[in-house]
Specification:
heterodimer; A: globular; B: mainly alpha
Chain lengths: ~260, ~260
């Protein structure tokens, strides 16, 4: 399996390298964390907001931008195209679940991105030396795991929405709604603490938090050890559930597809 | 006059063909309302912690959100569909037929297509402006309304010019989604009054990608808080961008060497 992945990854890397200019542009496009940072930054000029100082906002949103980059997903556009044009039929003939094909092409992007992101992060550190995180070895380990989980949840959710194209024509719209909810309840518009307490409480249990905000929270110095443990457990629950849903949708979808594919 | 009549025919035709899909129409109205709600919540979060952002009160910021929605509708209904159409035509070589039509090429290439249901954002935006004004219990004076319409026209010209420049790029690039998405990234910043941004960001949003003239300044015009310099700059910018985009388009057309034959 690992050998198969290495082969797939090598192929995807080569393909991605061809389009490195467009990859850079796509990275620039994700300016949303910076827009929100600019707004909160100027708002907190007069003093901290609900315990968040200016440098807290900088620390929060710059790490959030990094997490967003390292968990970016676009599989629904590939999948939607290939289902509609019948290209998926060819992939189904391969002796490998097409999921691995799409996963490896996304992974190639994640292998290449640090080349750009690390210099950017160092630059940010020079500009904002007041950025501060709780870098203990355990938290850093959990952070890495949480980023992988965030990427996985994002990827599988989008993949499932993409598979819905077997049945309905508006799968993209559903994905847009999901994405909008994720931006709102995943800590993009505001850190989750800044919502009214009941909303924050609910958002802590929803999957959106684990798609973006949770990795940042881990090292923000605001999560106690108990919060951290509960968070990780909830995260694992969503990872498991989304995989089960995927299996179920995939089995039924394939039957549906071959029904009119022939 | 002839051009207006032509537009009337094009748009009537689009409307008739879209009315065939009424379920889709309803779904899209639902999405417009959803996005409006989303935009409002994303502003309301700030007002949980403060009563003014960038010196704008809650109903005043709603006006900016309203203009943001209004111009999203304008772009999605009138401008973006034409970008896609021109790209397709260049690729298939059918752009030749556009060139041989007995009307101005820029006119037909940039305004021929419309997605009627997206105008729902325009209507919702206007409704929100009325609502915000009623929340403030103010009736704008005639002078403010005139200034508002003036700034709205300037904003429309600016948005049109920016999109025309993006369409022109189609003569060199096979895909344009990089450019349109980059533009949308900047446009997102227009959901908030430009006064909340500091330094470089504000300069960029005012003069480089002049989103401030699209969402913030028309709102300030209606609120009677715009100064004369800004209205003049807005007008000059609109005319300037319109001319530049027209030149760029003409230059791009010359670059076109049909895909057929």
């Amino acid at each position: 399996m690992i050998r198969k992945y290495l082969a797939l990854l090598r192929r995807s890397l080569a393909a991605m390298f061809e389009y490195r200019a467009s990859m850079l542009i796509w990275m620039l496009i994700n300016v949303m964390p910076l827009v929100m940072l600019a707004v909160w930054f100027s708002m907190s000029e007069g003093g901290p907001i609900a315990g968040y100082t200016q440098s807290d906002f900088v620390s929060y949103y710059l790490l959030l931008a990094l997490v967003q980059q390292m968990t970016s997903v676009w599989v629904i556009y590939e999948l939607d195209y290939e289902i509609r044009h019948g290209d998926l039929s060819i992939k189904l003939l391969h002796p490998l679940n097409p999921l691995h094909d799409y996963l490896s092409s996304n992974l190639a992007d994640k292998v290449l991105k640090p080349v750009v992101l690390i210099p950017l992060a160092l630059g940010a550190w020079l500009i904002f030396p007041t950025m501060h995180y709780e870098w203990t070895p355990i938290r850093v380990l959990v952070l890495v795991a949480a980023m992988i989980a965030a990427w996985f949840i994002r990827f599988m959710a989008q993949y499932i929405f993409g598979l819905l194209a077997f049945w309905i024509s508006d799968s993209m719209t559903l994905n847009d709604i999901w994405f909008a909810l994720a931006e709102m309840l995943g800590g993009m518009i505001a850190p989750l603490d800044l919502f009214p307490p009941p909303v924050t409480a609910v958002a802590h249990w929803l999957p959106f938090r684990f798609m973006l905000s949770f990795p940042v929270e881990i090292v923000s110095g605001r999560l106690t050890a108990t919060d951290l443990a509960v968070g990780v457990a909830t995260m694992l629950f969503w990872v498991g559930l989304i995989f089960v849903i995927y299996r179920w949708v995939w089995r039924r979808g394939i039957r549906q597809f071959s029904a009119f594919g022939a | 006059m002839r051009y207006l009549k032509l537009l009337g025919i094009f748009y009537k035709y689009s409307l008739v063909s879209e009315l065939e899909y009424r379920a889709k129409f309803l779904a899209n109205v639902f999405m417009s309302v959803f996005w409006l709600g989303w935009a409002i919540v994303s502003v309301a979060v700030f007002f949980l912690h403060t009563d003014k952002i960038g010196d704008w009160t809650w109903p005043e910021v709603l006006m900016v959100v309203a203009l943001f929605t209004f111009f999203s509708g304008v772009m999605e209904a009138l401008l973006r569909p034409n970008v896609g159409a021109v790209l397709d035509q260049i690729r298939d070589g059918t752009f030749d037929f556009v060139l041989t039509k007995p009307v101005n090429v820029q006119f037909i290439a940039s305004l021929r297509n419309i997605v009627v249901w997206r105008l729902s954002d325009v209507v919702i935006g206007l409704g929100l402006i009325v609502y915000a004004m009623s929340q403030m219990h103010v009736v704008p004076t005639l002078g403010q309304v005139v200034l508002f319409v003036w700034m709205l026209l300037a904003a429309t010209a600016i948005v049109y010019a920016l999109w025309l420049m993006m369409v022109s790029l189609a003569f060199w690039f096979v895909r344009l989604d990089n450019f349109t998405e980059l533009f949308y990234g900047f446009y997102q910043a227009g959901r908030y009054p430009v006064t909340i941004y500091n330094g470089v960001v504000r300069v960029i949003l005012t003069f480089v990608v002049p989103i401030a003239f699209v969402t913030t300044f028309p709102a300030s015009a209606l609120l009677g808080r715009i100064d004369q310099t800004t209205t003049i700059i807005g007008f000059a910018l609109a005319i300037g961008l319109f001319i530049v985009s027209n030149r760029f388009w003409t230059f791009a057309i010359k670059h076109y060497s049909s895909a057929s034959s």
